[in-house]
Every structure is written in C-alpha cells, then in structure tokens.
Specification:
Strand content: 35-45%
CATH architecture of the largest domain: Beta Barrel
Distance between the termini: 115 Å
Structural class: alpha+beta
Radius of gyration: 51 Å
Number of helices: 5
Number of strands: 23
Shape: rod-shaped
Largest sheet: 9 strands, mixed
Mean pLDDT: 81
Order of helices and strands: HEEEEEEEHHEEEEEHEEEEEEEEEEEH
Helix content: 25-40%
Length: 397
C-alpha cells in the first residue's frame, strides 16, 4: 500500500503546480494591460505646447544710426601780440566773459614812452631851428631889398628850411608809430566771448605773434559732425535736423553740406548752427540720429525664435501640418516642427530682420527652441504679435 501511494504523488502534484502558476499570473497580465493603457494616455496628453508667431512680410527695414561730433564756437581765436615785450598786466583769466573792446593783456610800455619823449624833444628842436631859419630868411630878404644880401644866401636858408620841415615830418611819423606801438601793447577782445585758455603770466617776456589767450565766441555756436560720404545722398532729403547734446535735443540748421573727405576719418564734416539759447559748452559731444532705410523684403522675428544651425547658419522652427506641407490653423491638435534656414539682414537688442525659406502668414515657434527637435509633434497655444509693430512704425518713416 505504501508503494502505490508514493508512485501516484508525482503525477498529481504536476497539474496542481501548473494550475497554481496560471492562477497567479492572471493578476500580472491585468497589471501589464493597465500599465500599457496608462502609458498611451500619458503620451497622448503630453504633446508639447509652444508659443507661435505669425510672419508678416515687410518691404524694407530701417537701421537707427547715430553719428557723433563736437560742439565748437563759431569763432575761436588764439590771440597773439603784434609786438614783443614783457607782460605787465593780465586783465582777465580762464572762464571770464568779455565783450568786444575789453582789454585782455598789457605789455610793459616804459621803453616806448621814453622813445616818445625823445621824439617829442627832437621835434621841439627842429621847430626851434625852423623858427631861426624863418627869421634869417626874413632878415636876408630885407637886406636884399637894400642891395646888401646875395641871392645865394637866401637859397641856402630856403634849403635848410625845407630839410628841417622834412625832418619834422619824419619825427611826426616816428612819434605816431610810437603811439601806435603803445596802443598795440594792449590786446583787446575782438568779439564777445569766453576766455578758454591762458598761455602767459605776468612778467613773461614774449615774442611777436606768441599766443596769449584763446577766446571762444559766445554767439553762433556750431556742431561739427563727420558723416560717411556714401550717406550724403540719403541725408540730402532731410529738411528738419535735430541734434542730441547731453540730455537735451536741439533743432539745428545745416550750414555747410561738406566740401571734402577728411584724410584721417574718411568722413565729410557737416556744420550745424545751434540755437542762440542752446546751453552747451565748447567740446561737448553732439549726436546726429539718422534713420537709414534699406529697401529689401523680409520679416521681423524675435531673437528668441532663432537658433544656430549647421556651418554657422541661422534657423527657425516652422509648424507643418501632419497631413500637408503647409502650416495649418492653431485649432489643429498637433503639428510637426520643421527646421528652416534664414539669413539675418539686421538685428537689434530684441528682434531681427530676416529672409530665407519662410513665407508670409507662416507660423514659427517664438521661443523655447532648446526643447524641440525637427519632426517633433507640438501644439500651438497662442500667437505673438509683430514685434513692437515694427512694420507700421517703419511705414510712417
């Protein structure tokens, strides 16, 4: 009996074990089916949402250019002396305001005054000699009438008188020259202005022509600005000019359209007259703002919509319908990312003007390009406006 029981045990145990394994595997199969359904649901609900931007075609773009120059006085003279001498007195100093005719500097005139006294004395001597000659002539004529004087004596006295008169005229001219030198020993302001520099001090001995002061005219202030020669035809159409100096803006008028290209800067210098009430200082920087228009078709896009591509080119990500090559409306549940190559024509701090494999009213992804790859399915959620309404603002320029 024991042997029959032992032999039947293996045959009964095997079906029982298989049944147990099958029953235990049923929950696992259900779990796997539930997990697969969950993964499909998550994949369907996690399509990436992106901000979109609708391209608007433009026929031109404008570059804001700014050219810099300097404020200069209408007149700027380095006042020098016509005669050399010792500086006796300085009437003004740097920063002083003067009017035309005010004395600026006086040289020592002691030697000139001594020469003037000498000339005056010599003139008096000649006058005395002339009086004597006239008296002698009168006497000789009286004697001649009585037959006691020769004609030669009278001729000799006449010659001496003429020589003394010539000497008197020479002394008079020398005395006038001396007075003129004394007058020119003082330098006077030729116009109203401000003393900007002083080159001498009291006691200095200066030569003829040495500069003493720099005088800047207080009226007719100007701004000199260099412009590239190629921009002159575009600037010729401007009638209302405006310059920015410091924080203030001034309306100006063009005095000189430029005569030649300067060798150093290779620019043409334009002269602008500032208003009489302009509160500016000589040497301040003046800025001329110029809207440089370029007639070339393209599109304004935000910088965040650009990404670098292969071999240094720029790309944007456009939206493509899953069923067609063109972009579809934002109501579509999902669209595909497509890489497009563009060329940047101009860029500022926020936007770029581009052209390339894009077209009007096409939608591109506005930001977050680092999260995307070409061919990825995305869902647009909104459309960004044209940056800063650039197309409308440029149309008015």
């Amino acid at each position: 009996m024991r042997r029959n029981t032992t032999a039947a045990s293996p045959s009964l145990t095997r079906p029982i074990m298989m049944l147990s394994v099958f029953l235990l595997s049923l929950p696992l199969i259900g779990c796997n089916t539930s997990q697969s359904d969950t993964d499909n649901t998550v994949t369907a609900t996690q399509t990436l949402k992106v901000n979109t931007f609708t391209l608007q075609a433009a026929d031109h773009y404008t570059v804001e250019r700014e050219y810099v120059g300097m404020v200069q006085a209408g007149q700027q003279a380095n006042l020098g002396v016509e005669l050399g001498g010792k500086v006796a007195k300085l009437w003004v100093d740097v920063g002083d305001t003067v009017t035309a005719g005010d004395p600026l500097i006086t040289l020592d005139t002691q030697m000139l005054k001594t020469q003037s006294d000498e000339l005056t004395a010599r003139q008096a001597q000649v006058t005395a000699q002339l009086e004597l000659i006239e008296a002698n002539l009168k006497r000789q004529r009286a004697l001649k009438s009585k037959g006691f004087s020769a004609e030669s004596e009278i001729d000799n006295l006449r010659s001496q008188r003429n020589a003394l008169k010539a000497n008197y005229r020479q002394l008079t001219a020398s005395l006038a020259a001396n007075q003129l030198q004394q007058q020119k020993s003082t330098i006077y302001a030729p116009y109203d202005g401000i003393v900007s520099e002083r080159f001498v001090s009291t006691g200095d001995v200066i030569n003829t022509g040495s500069p003493t002061f720099t005088l800047l005219a207080s009226s007719r202030k100007e701004a000199h600005i260099g412009i590239p020669a190629k921009q002159l035809p575009k600037l010729a159409a401007i009638t209302d000019w405006t310059l920015r100096i410091g924080t203030a803006t001034y309306p100006v008028s063009l005095l000189n359209p430029g005569a030649n290209v300067e060798r150093g800067s290779r620019t043409v210098k334009l002269r602008f007259a500032l208003p009489a009430d302009a509160n500016v200082i000589n040497g301040e920087l003046a800025y001329l703002q110029f809207h440089d228009r370029h007639d070339q078709a393209g599109y304004w896009i935000p910088l965040s919509a650009m990404t670098d591509g292969i071999r240094g080119v720029w790309n944007v990500f456009a939206l493509r319908s899953n069923n067609a090559g063109d972009s579809v409306s934002e109501a579509a549940p999902a669209q595909t990312v497509e890489r497009r190559t563009i060329q940047v024509l101009h860029a500022n701090s926020d936007h770029a003007y581009v052209t390339g494999a894009i077209k009007h009213n096409e939608k591109i992804i506005a930001d977050g390009l680092h999260r995307l790859v070409p061919g990825q399915a995305v869902s647009p959620v909104k459309k960004l406006p044209l940056p800063l309404d650039l197309s409308q603002s440029e149309a008015t320029q």
